[in-house]
Write a structure and sequence with these properties.
By secondary structure, the chain is of the alpha+beta class. The protein is built from four helices and five strands; from the N terminus they run H-E-E-E-E-H-H-E-H.
């Protein structure tokens, strides 16, 4: 199953964070989805692999989503990251 099909199965939940817009998790594939923010609102979507439901629960319930992400997920080798290029981005990219 490719990343866009997995993303379609993930329910994204908005969170209170200065850098993260929303998060979601797909337990069967251990995929954590994070949509970041920019000054205009929701921005890039990324998938992090090998994230268990337990780790996702800790992340979701952390006092600071951004601090937890930075300390426990962001640069950890066990959670490789992939930027997800969404269909609307493909159209915008080809118009440039």
């Amino acid at each position: 199953m490719d990343a866009l099909h997995i993303q379609a199965l993930i329910t994204m939940t908005e969170v209170q964070s200065s850098q993260i817009h929303s998060i979601g998790h797909h337990t069967p594939t251990l995929t954590l989805a994070i949509r970041f923010k920019n000054k205009k609102g929701p921005a890039g979507l990324y998938h992090y692999a090998n994230v268990t439901a337990e780790t996702f629960g800790e992340f979701r319930n952390a006092a600071s989503i951004g601090a937890y992400f930075g300390a426990k997920i962001k640069a950890r080798l066990e959670y490789p990251c992939t930027r997800i290029v969404e269909p609307a981005e493909n159209v915008a990219d080809s118009a440039v």
